[in-house]
């Protein structure tokens, strides 16, 4: 990963979309509780508009699991990932690029999309490490994932990434794309691994 001035900072979607998804599923009071629990109460008045410290996203995910329990937290995190994908499609990925990807054969589109994701990975992995293998099925690897950093679980926890990747692949590569986390650092695996099928 290339070093840059934002090292250790990630995009604010990691906060904003989790709050949106939690409010949709559990109401405004749950968002207030979450932000207080994660010591991010400053965002109660206004959500962040610039890059945030990766520690904030880590604290938010840990607080979400503590507040809801792992199954409900995973559902909220996945929805937040889907919402992040929608935001990226609406605001960050040029329309011309989206049109091109949609007309390419799926395997070629996947290769192009993964290259683009790699170029912007620092915005969502922070000090983690992103890698990908475009052969079929495409594989995505995240070492030191922010979503599960410091956690131990019997199941994969990086549903935020699953939701984001799945939305992008379904919209830009193949409408039946499904992303599954097949290895997770929280389970003791060396890195988090996501497999894309269609």
From TrEMBL:
Q: Enumerate the Pfam families for this protein.
A: V4R
The region annotated as signal peptide is: none
UniProt xrefs under SMART domains: V4R (SM00989)
| InterPro entries linked to this entry | BchJ (IPR010249), NO_sig/Golgi_transp_ligand-bd (IPR024096), V4R (IPR004096)
Q: What's one GO BP annotation on this UniProt entry?
A: photosynthesis
Domain 4-vinyl reductase 4VR, by residue range, is: 138-198
PANTHER family from the entry?
DNA-DIRECTED RNA POLYMERASE SUBUNIT I, SLR0144 PROTEIN
Listed name of the protein: Bacteriochlorophyll 4-vinyl reductase
The species this protein was found in? Chromatium okenii
């Amino acid at each position: 990963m290339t070093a840059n001035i934002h090292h250790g900072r990630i995009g604010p979607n990691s906060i904003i979309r989790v709050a949106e998804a939690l409010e949709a599923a559990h109401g405004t009071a749950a968002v207030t509780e979450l932000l207080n629990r994660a010591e991010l109460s400053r965002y109660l008045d206004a959500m962040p508009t610039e890059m945030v410290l990766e520690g904030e996203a880590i604290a938010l995910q840990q607080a979400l699991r503590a507040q809801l329990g792992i199954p409900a937290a995973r559902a909220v995190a996945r929805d937040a990932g889907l919402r992040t994908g929608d935001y990226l499609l609406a605001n960050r990925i040029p329309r011309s690029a989206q049109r091109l990807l949609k007309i390419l054969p799926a395997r070629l589109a996947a290769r192009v999309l993964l290259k683009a994701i790699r170029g912007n990975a620092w915005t969502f992995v922070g000090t983690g490490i992103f890698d990908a293998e475009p052969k079929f099925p495409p594989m995505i690897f995240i070492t030191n994932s922010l979503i599960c950093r410091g956690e131990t679980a019997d199941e994969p926890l990086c549903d935020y990434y699953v939701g984001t990747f799945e939305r992008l692949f379904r919209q830009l590569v193949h409408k039946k794309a499904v992303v599954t986390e097949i290895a997770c650092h929280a389970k003791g695996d060396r890195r988090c691994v996501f497999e894309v099928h269609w």
